[in-house]
Amino acid sequence: MTSTLTPVRSKRSALTKGQLPKYAPYAVLAAALVVGAAILALVGFNAFGWGLVSALLFAIGLVSWSAAVEGSRKAKDKLATCLVVGSFLIALLPLISVIWTVLVNGIPGLIAPGFLSTSMNGVTGVYDNRAAEEGAPVIGGIYHALLGTIQITLLATVISVPVGLLTAIYLVEYGNDGRLARAITFFVDVMTGIPSIVAGLFAAAFFFAVVGPGTKTGAVAAVALSVLMIPVVVRSSEEMLKIVPNELREAAYALGVRKWRTIVKVVIPTAISGIASGVTLAIARVIGETAPILVTAGFATSINSNVFSGWMASLPTFIYTQILNPTSPANPDPSSQRAWGAALVLIILVMLLNLGARLIARIFAPKTGR
Amino acid sequence: MSKRIDVKDLNVYYGDFLAVEDVTINIEAKSVTAFIGPSGCGKSTFLRTLNRMHEVIPGARVEGDVMLDGDNLYGPGVDPVTVRSQIGMVFQRPNPFPTMSIRDNVLAGVKLNNKKISKGEADVLVERSLKGANLWNEVKDRLEKPGSGLSGGQQQRLCIARAIAVEPQVILMDEPCSALDPISTLAIEDLINELKDQYTVVIVTHNMQQAARVSDRTAFFNIAGTGKPGKLIEVDDTHTIFSNPTQKATEDYVSGRFG
Known about the structure:
The structure holds two protein chains of two kinds. Chain A is an all-alpha fold. In chain A, about 70% of the residues lie in helices and about 0% in strands. Chain A is built from 13 helices and no strands. In chain A, helix 5 packs across helix 12. Chain A is flat. The model of chain A has no long low-confidence stretch (mean pLDDT about 85). Chain B is of the alpha/beta class. A ten-stranded mixed β-sheet of chain B has the order 5-4-1-2-10-9-3-8-7-6, sandwiched between helices. Chain B is globular and about 55 Å long. The N and C termini of chain B lie far apart (about 40 Å). The mean pLDDT of chain B is about 90. At the A-B interface, helix 9 and helix 10 of A face helix 2, helix 4 and helix 7 of B.
């Protein structure tokens, strides 16, 4: 792909000799699509195969044409472009597919009346049978699960952020890369790799030992989630604190400001936008955890607004139980509709959190106006 | 509101590495003292030992005495924070706090230390400091705007205003003009001339003309070779250093015959 900007069209510039015409990629793409469809028609057409074969044909066609006309350097450039764009499309494919599937399956559940404002309390298989057989509206909703997810995640954040942020401050400002700091960094790295179910088992065992056997509450789940969250918060805050220029610390020291005040009033405000978005991403990371919540908070069908007592539902466990143990085993469709609706809500939550992270980063970012 | 500094037999280390060796120098109150010398000879390192900023770097330490009007900065029990509130510093690159407005940057030394100050007093302090740094007229209409929006020269003068707002006895300047254009440099040099009426000023510079223009006394530092410690070769009146130095090395350096 070259752009010839010669004002005189009639005579080809000597400088642009030996280049493919501008329409080359489109021509090759069209040819690849046609030939690909023809080849696929021989073995049985399917869209995925068509895309794959066409992409291969396009790459081969464009690179060899370029090699013939433009020489090997340009051909290598085109090959690299094809590889990069191809990898990008492959990476994007699952994302688009997931979003599409969840949207298609989730919207009927989401728009069902009372989906966001009622719980599953009192919803039995009888109603689902009636919905499936007689076309009655699907009742029951995710209010209890949404409430549970928000409470558990909020509590996990309240636990993780101070611990994680203070750890990061120790590592960056006081650790001096000493033995303790290196040990903390090592264990934080190890914690990053803990399987989430192990975090759940840890929290469950911890509360069994401290409070009593069978303790399953939202708070236990929050502890399990903070085990997963803390390393993420430490890591992201550490990186953000590290990029605060040393000059700012020295400027504060030179004014006779104590170290802890410098950290609280200069270093953290400078890094706060990055820290805040890191925390939000850490929340997004744990909000969809299923296994640790299942073993720590159990699952409930009714609203529980006390995070410190009783079993508590959450969106991931709601999805899990609706799919695995449909409310009416004879007619699982209403349950799966609710599960998809909950999945859509979960994705929307994560998306909102990501948007929130960007917004927070923008609000807190150091101002540069004149 | 200014004090003299007397340094005696000061050795500066980074870990085991001796960076500056055996410096003895007297810095007069209400005067400008310039440190000149080739890169890496320890001028800035030595300057940073004068307000205990040196020890911010892990492993850095000093041996010897630095007396501020007779009080040893490195005496037992001396809090480096107290030292730094008396001996301010301006750095090579302008470093206003990016999260603060111009006004808050000037008040940083007060506000960061949580000292109570009324709005009226704060206004007076901001105006006095910015006027002292020759910046008032340029920024008086945009005090609430971020300090990082100013030009490099204005930012550096903002940093000087910030340093004089805490009313130090001594102001150290580490190559304050090396990142600035000639006009901003001139503004800062004029400012240094005014500052010496009230403060003791110590300035590190690579620019010998600048040293000749602004300073009353000049100290020449040199280094024998890579890995060797930097040394104070000669200190005298600026005029003497540039016209009739006693050391051959000084004469070679100021006349451009070095290496």
